[in-house]
Automatic annotation (TrEMBL):
The lineage of its organism: Eukaryota, Metazoa, Chordata, Craniata, Vertebrata. The keyword Nucleotide-binding does not apply. This is Taste receptor type 2. PANTHER family: TASTE RECEPTOR TYPE 2. InterPro entries: TAS2R (IPR007960). Belongs to the G-protein coupled receptor T2R family. It comes from the Eukaryota. It is found in: Membrane. One of its GO terms (molecular function) is bitter taste receptor activity.
Amino acid sequence: MISFLSALPHVIIMSAEFITGITVNGFLIIINCKELIKSRKPTPVQVLFICIGMSRFGLLMVLMIQSFFSVFFPFFYKVNIFGTAMLFFWMFFSSVSLWFATCLSVFYCLKIAGFTQSCFLWLKFRISKLLPWLLLGSLLASMSIAALCIEADYPKNVDDDALKNATLKRTEPKIRQINEMLLVNLALLFPLAIFVMCTFMLFISLYKHTHRMQNGSHGVRNASTKAHINALKTVITFFCFFISYFAAFMANMTFSIPYGSHCFFVVKDIMAAFPSGHSIIILLSNSKYQQPFRRLLCFKKNQ
């Protein structure tokens, strides 16, 4: 049985992450839906931000339910938390959140990077039209991963006595089951690879831009360089949250972390930081969201 005192830091951290994430992602959804209603002509970027907000909202709800039952109802957590419905929603929201983050990084890279190759320019001028298809592909890929996960076996929690009496025949399927879950979720290495490639391309673009503009106008150089640096900061911050969630998620999927241990709670806290922190960076890096968001947080008085 987990001591509530030992789990108290986890409860405080998760509560803060949940409240922050629900506020930020709720704001992201509402403000883009409001703009969408006003314009009556949705832009792909607005749809992308709405999709990101909804996916993070769903992921936070799943992680909060898991954390709540892991602390207050450990027996229920061990027996039912990996039921078909919960497992499907967890895998779906985990996958779609990473895919949507990748779509955003691709969008930033194509809009900011200054490459002149024909293939890059073709994508650059068509990204707005391609974005809805990327979102649809992300949804389909995530649903496929979630469906495969609920079909794959995973190691169930068993009593210590049962483990002591387990035979070699009993342990062999367990190894196979762990590999099944990991193999399915290794498909998420693909969006991770795209994310890394976009970050690398922005680095190269910034280097080439500063080198090319050394003898140019200072005003032009400063404006364009600032855009590159701001985009790079945003994507690097995205990457930090992305890679930390991916690592914690994969560690969790090994089912090797002792239930109720310090490491168990740390992994849960790291996973919950992604849907909250990533969305905060989206708001703070977008100038049109900063003022209404600060008003919401009472940082700035209404005029």
